[in-house]
# Entry
Amino acid sequence: MRLLPRSLFGQLALFLAVGLALAQLLSAALLLQDRDQALSHVLGGHIAQRIAAIVELLDTLDRAERRRLVAALDLPPTRLSLELPWADDLPADERYHTTLFRALLRRQLGAERPFQLHISDDLPEPPLPPPPPLGAEPRRGPPHWRMRAMMLGLRNFVVQVRLADGTVATFQQVLPEEVLAWPARLLLILLILLVSVALVAALAVRALIQPLTVLARAANDLGRDIHQPPLSENGPLEVRDAARAFNTMQGRLIRYIEDRDRLLAAVSHDLKTPITRLRLRAELLDDPLLRDKIQADLDDMQHLVQASLDFLRGGDHAEPMVPTDVDALLESLQEDVEDTGFSLAIQGATLAPLRCRPLALKRCLGNLVDNALHYGRDVGIVVCDTPERLTLRVCDRGPGIPEAQLEQVFAPFYRLEGSRSRDTGGTGLGLSIARGIARAHGGELSLRNRVGGGLDAVLELPR
# Structure
């Protein structure tokens, strides 16, 4: 399974989203930690002051008054008891909250006042008070200071302080749930900030990636038509440099093609002129057999020169790209084939006109059809059109081509005389010219053997 998106925009957006999410989570953790420490200072100081005030008041009262005061103060969330013994087995706790609250209590109670502190989320049940003397009224059980329902998931402060006469006063403070809960407003603000920054980052990434998309589209169009308008050289420095380099490359390619066309025109003229002179001189020969042989050699030479020039011209960029009715083009090709005494079947139809160079495309298909007629039988063209591409499949029933040589036959002057042809002939440039025309249109030409014998020449052209 592919985890990363295929596009550069998707990958950059994913990396930015993950980075922002991690940064926001870290920020939230730090803010919540600072909030927890601040609450510990405020609430701890308030609880320590209240405990110290109650302890000082209890020291001034006799036993009966103490009982009445404890009964009045023993209310949630602060529970108070004078009947629990001093706990000698409280676990040592050096956490931040415990150390802070111990220091606050020491400051409020004084250095000489003995006390002990334990902070826990899960405390054992307090021990039961000693049984009453004989004849006395039964004592009530210890106050239910645990309050399981209220303490679920809450933090408990348990403090035991010795009064002046040795009595142990046990305090328990249960922090309310709304104090310990995560601040919804703060988390909402962080979420809004994350979404806002992510949207701005996505827009910025799209704006930065857009020049790459334009450059890729221009490079793709350049393969179809070298005379595309130059790219606009504006935007950031790197984008301007890339556009300027692309325009410079396009200008050099145009000059190269123009120089090549001039050279090919000169070569064509310089080669055809002596061939024409030799043909005229051959007509003056008295020996008919020799004259016919020389004329045949001159025909082969002229055909080879013309095929070589066609190959060097490639896709013939001088022809403009125009919307073309491919069905009509195929019908014209079918009529040309039938005029030579052969048959060509056509299956399927196109959905819409194709923007192409019609003469070059007809030459490409003509080379494929001639190749199929020369080496096979039952030749036909199958049309498969989609909104993305047009596929033209030239089929025949012949000996086919060995799998290892399906690509080699596209090399110039490469022929498979012994494996495929019934007669010798051809220059070995037909498939090379056809592939050059296909690629000049931004498409591709490939060969594959058919099941049961024969060959498929598959021409794919983008819409």
Remarks:
- The chain has three domains: 1-123+145-222, 225-313, 322-462.
- The two ends are 31 Å apart (CA to CA).
